[in-house]
Design brief:
By secondary structure, the protein is an alpha+beta fold. The protein folds into 2 domains: about 190 residues, Cytochrome Bc1 Complex, Chain A, domain 1 (2-Layer Sandwich), CATH 3.30.830; about 160 residues, Cytochrome Bc1 Complex, Chain A, domain 1, CATH 3.30.830.10. The chain has 15 helices and 9 strands. The termini are far apart.
């Protein structure tokens, strides 16, 4: 863990980890960041394309992931590697982990995801069905439903990664090359490599990415159906509150999130409480999701509704230091493997942050003071929260 802590703190200090300043005369190319970890002969390559589904075709990036993933898994398995594909609010992300000696082969395989997939009818129907199932599942389970409904209120432009029903109907008949042409630009690609490799080798491996593919499909209007029409059934009461906080300092907001979680869990021992810092290119928010017994719902609501003021009135510097230390320990624990470290570094890049932002954020968390947290709480208290509730189902005797 000590070695990881040093690596995280110095990740962007070594000269060969930073991409050079952009040259306007050079053809657009991906951003590349490398963190060399020679202790193990493996490498995690994370390739992300900034999320930009064409208007009216929400879910296009995730659909293409389903079309491309089987081939990607088959090729990476040949060298004993593994693959992960996710669609975040910021990007379409592929991560492959395998032997560092196979860098060129794995990079060549990853470059293939930067072209429109060629899919037959059966493959298209299977991928569309999988994406539709994911979209439905987000609304069927209470905790996912609460989070999705809060996001839709705070960030209406952040459509679900699995898209919408209307968009999927269009994608089923659209030409994938035209959809891809509307999404892909080399400069929208970011590559993070963590492991026993050097930046010169990674640059060489990704030197030939495809050029932009043209104009693509014409934009269309798209809408997300109202959440109230399909409220899930639940055996407990669920409710959520979320406050827009895009103007807050991210490090201070992260520490405030941890403090509020600690504050509520001490007071709501018979309820499940999650408090989260949401941070994407759409903005920032502090969100909390609570599950509790029906009989405890009234007191749980009162506790949550008074929680920001309650934290403010009971705050001291020691609590802030302890929360900041806890956040930093959790970051290090999460980033203990090459692919997790690549995820940490890549998340900042996907939000449009400059190289070195992850290291600076990690350092900034340690510098958060009581005054910084009070400033965040004042900002949140001035906001009207988004509110979502799911009542527990009631059994009726026959």
């Amino acid at each position: 863990m000590l070695n990881l802590a040093v690596a995280f703190a110095l990740a962007f200090a070594a000269p060969d980890t930073l991409p050079p300043p952009p040259d306007p005369a050079v053809v657009a190319e991906p951003a590349i960041v490398v963190l060399r970890q020679p202790a193990l002969p493996i490498v995690a390559l994370r390739l992300s394309l900034l999320a930009d589904d064409p208007p009216g075709y929400a879910g296009a990036g995730h659909l293409m992931q389903h079309l491309l993933l089987p081939r990607l898994e088959e090729r990476i398995a040949r060298v004993g590697g593994r693959v992960q594909a996710v669609r975040t609010s910021d990007a379409v992300v592929y991560t492959v982990v395998g032997p560092a000696g196979e860098l060129d082969y794995m990079a060549e395989t990853l470059r293939a995801v930067l072209r429109a997939p060629a899919a037959g009818t059966a493959e298209m129907l299977s991928a569309a069905a999988a994406v539709t199932q994911e979209r439905t599942a987000e609304r069927e389970i209470a905790p996912q439903y609460v989070r999705a409904a809060l996001r839709a209120t705070l960030f209406p432009g952040d459509l679900p990664p699995a898209g919408t029903d209307a968009a999927m109907a269009r994608l089923n008949t659209a030409r994938m090359d035209e959809v891809w042409a509307a999404m892909y630009r080399p400069e929208r690609v970011s590559i993070v490599a963590v492991g026993d490799v050097e930046i010169a080798g990674v640059r060489r491996a990704f030197r030939d990415v495809p050029a932009s593919a043209g104009q693509g499909v014409a934009p269309r209007a798209d809408t997300l159906r109202a959440f109230a029409v399909d409220t899930p059934q639940a055996t407990r009461g669920w409710f959520g509150r979320a406050w827009s906080a895009s103007q807050a300092d991210p490090a201070a907001l992260t520490v405030t999130t941890r403090l509020l979680r600690n504050h509520l869990r001490r007071r709501m021992t018979r309820s499940a409480v999650d408090v989260e810092h949401w941070w994407t290119h759409h903005g920032q928010a502090l969100a909390l999701v609570v599950a509790t017994a029906d009989s405890l719902m009234p007191v749980a609501r009162r506790t949550v509704d008074g929680s920001l003021a309650g934290l403010r009135d009971n705050l001291d510097e020691r609590q802030v230091r302890d929360a900041a230390a806890s956040v930093r320990r959790e970051m290090l624990f999460f980033a203990r493997t090459p692919e997790r470290m690549a995820d940490v570094l890549g998340a900042f890049s996907d939000r449009g942050e400059a190289a070195g932002s992850a290291q600076r954020f990690y350092a900034a968390v340690a510098e958060v003071t009581e005054d910084d947290v009070r400033a965040v709480l004042a900002l949140l208290l001035a906001e009207e929260p988004a509110i979502v509730e799911v009542a527990p189902q009631r059994l009726v005797a026959q």
